Amino acid sequence: MLVxxxxxxxxxxxxxxxxxxxxxxxxxxxxxxLLENSFKVELVISKSASKVAQAxxxxxxxxxxxxxxxxxxxxxxxxxxxxxELLNVWAHDDITASISxxxxxxxxxxxxxxxxxxxxAIASGTSDNLITRAADVFLKERRRLILVPRxxxxxxxxxxxxxxxxxxxxxxxxxxxxxxxxxxxxxxxxDFVVGKVLDLIGIDNSLFKRWREKFNLPALK
Length: 221
Ligand SMILES: Cc1cc2nc3c(=O)[nH]c(=O)nc-3n(C[C@H](O)[C@H](O)[C@H](O)COP(=O)(O)O)c2cc1C
Hints:
The protein is an alpha/beta fold. It has helices at residues 24-36, 47-57, 65-74, 78-81, 116-124, 130-140, 156-167, 186-201, and strands at 14-18, 41-45, 87-90, 108-114, 144-149, 171-172. It has a six-stranded parallel β-sheet, with helices on both faces. The structure holds flavin mononucleotide (FMN).
């Protein structure tokens, strides 16, 4: 008899959810890395995230998932955009999407960046759009859910919501780039955050220089 468990099977798709906090670029960079390295991705972008993408990256994103997929692929470099078969894009309100069911198998879900609005909805279990529903599924199925909040300062409500979600099993990985790897530019700072997220999913990467790494260590499992 086969026994199912919730250990990370990285041949299963990773859900990348981009919500309306500042830092759309973190989500795009994660998506780019995953596709470049042949991981399957299920992508959801919230309504507010589209507005933030417009303000921060001058991207005018469609609400139609087919068009949205083309737009997202065209902002990645050409070698990555050829990997279009690895990417599924869902409308943020499509509650009939595969990823809204626990029966659909996935390896990890990352909300990057995670707005305080989305964090509040996940903490209270409202499941009011595809991102919050998929996150709810991850918590109930005890799968690896990683949230990358971006806000400052934090209110007691934000902190309580983050603690509640952490207690329910998610990993809270704030978008706080370190400086001990001597970033030379913004891309280095972005890659630090995305590299740490990849570590948490269990995906080997060299997006940032690790502290005093001297030995040739084995790849992450
Ligand atoms: C340019 C811009 C930047 C924003 N930055 C943040 C932020 O860093 N953190 C945050 O929690 N909300 C931020 N917001 C507010 C959220 O977009 C807003 O609360 C929204 O309702 C979140 O919706 P969502 O969680 O469904 O994406 C920002 C909004 C705009 C327009």
